UniProtKB/TrEMBL annotation:
Subcellular location: Apical cell membrane; Basolateral cell membrane; Cytoplasmic vesicle membrane; Golgi apparatus, trans-Golgi network membrane
Listed GO CC annotations: apical plasma membrane; basolateral plasma membrane; cytoplasmic vesicle membrane; Golgi apparatus
Membrane topology term: Multi-pass membrane protein
GO molecular function: water channel activity
Keywords attached to this entry: Cell membrane, Cytoplasmic vesicle, Glycoprotein, Golgi apparatus, Membrane, Phosphoprotein, Transmembrane, Transmembrane helix, Transport
Disordered, as annotated region: 1-35
Family: Belongs to the MIP/aquaporin (TC 1.A.8) family.
Chain segments annotated as transmembrane: 53-72, 84-105, 126-147, 167-189, 201-220
Protein name per the record: Aquaporin-2
Amino acid sequence: MHTATDCTPALLQDTASTPSRRAEAAPSRSLPSPEASLSTMWELRSVTFTRAVFAEFLATLIFIFFGLGSALPWPTSPPNVLQISLAFGLAIATLVQAVGHVSGAHINPAVTVACLVGSQVSFLRAIFYVVAQVLGAVTGAALLHQITPPHVRGSLAVNRVHNDTTTGQAVTMELFLTFQLVLCIFASTDDRRNDNVGSPALSIGFSVALGHLLGIYYTGCSMNPARSFGPAVIVGDFDSHWVSKTPVSSQGEVSFVLRGKPGTRWPVCLAAQSAAPQPSGPGPKGSFMRIPSSLSAIRMNSPPRWVLLLSGLACISATAFTCKCTAGKVCLPPFGEAHV
């Protein structure tokens, strides 16, 4: 595998030999690479890129439709925590297995941001993915709203802070819930693992179900800004929507912890990075396609570690400041069957 570290020793050795070589090498590092610009345009025009973006839209639509549908308060059969947790978890596991080879099956802006911070997807692809996920969530919530009787719709399972939970406590809970999900995704799809990891789709589904088993009592369990944004747009309830957005930027630290040496790439994030994908060689279950070696050194070099560390510290400071400013504040009515 071609990584950014493969060429670093040779470059240092070559430029350090003579002053003239250092002078010749310095301008080349400061100039933007024309090849990188061409690759960005090539990616945007490719059919594979369009398919990947549409796959994210469709997968998020289906996820929101089935997930929120399981939480609707039917009079004859009110939902329970186990039912909702299994519905969200099984929906994610099914969709990861179905579209993982097309787009990587992020289905979550938090996952896309983590891959972007870890240099696993290009900035262009991340922007299109997030837009597709948000539009898919709104569309799925709108479809569910239209086909559900008015007396059952309720708040359409909008995420809210429940059981006298303060805003700071809700943010902290969402931070941990989203962190364990992104951690599971990166760890279960690491192609450097030699052990039998089983099915990444199943483990990711279990991670989502696990988060709901606990998080429903606090915030209704978001772990996904698109999941919170979709129903909030349809019913016009944004009172606690910001709680689900706060932990998103911190998830990039997972890639900093797990990605290993600079240039390491993760199959779940790179399934559709190339417009001309090539099948990967023998590897663990769940391995997806790799980008061609000709593009490996373009856009995929990891950012400096100090950038990742500073971003993590900024996220932690923002969360601590939020908790301090909202300490003791009781948010919204207690948890009820209609709001999960």
